Amino acid sequence: MSTKEFEVNGTGFRVILTDQIINQVNDLKSLYSANYDDPESFEQVGAETSSIINDIADSVEPRPSDNDLHELIEEIIKVVDDKAAAIEKEMKTKEPSSRKKGSSKKGTKKTKK
Fold first, then answer.
1. CA nearest 72: which of 7, 3, 10, 4?
2. Rounded-to-integer distance, Cα 110 and Cα 54, Å
3. What pLDDT does 41 receive?
4. In the predicted model, what is the mean pLDDT of residues 46-56?
5. Which domain holds residue 62?
6. Domain membership flag for residue 91
7. How many independent structural domains does the chain possess?
């Protein structure tokens, strides 16, 4: 969990990136993708998209105005994407060091006499 601060249209905002917010952002991205792939599905997922956007906006301090909402959501998506990329990069850099050659203890069990 981390707190991110950013500015949209001259107003400072703060959001705490909980697992719930990250999941909502990922759900929103999936809905955007579905709308892009099948524009006719817009009516089906429009209410769900709106609900998720409002849930995310409710977690932001101060509460954004309707005029700031689009850019605010874009910023939060960017923050979540950046965080995911940083975690993935960290995992990749740690992976090789955890697999040192010859460090396996398999087959070296000692027995007591």
1. 7
2. 60
3. 73
4. 91
5. 2-97
6. yes
7. 1
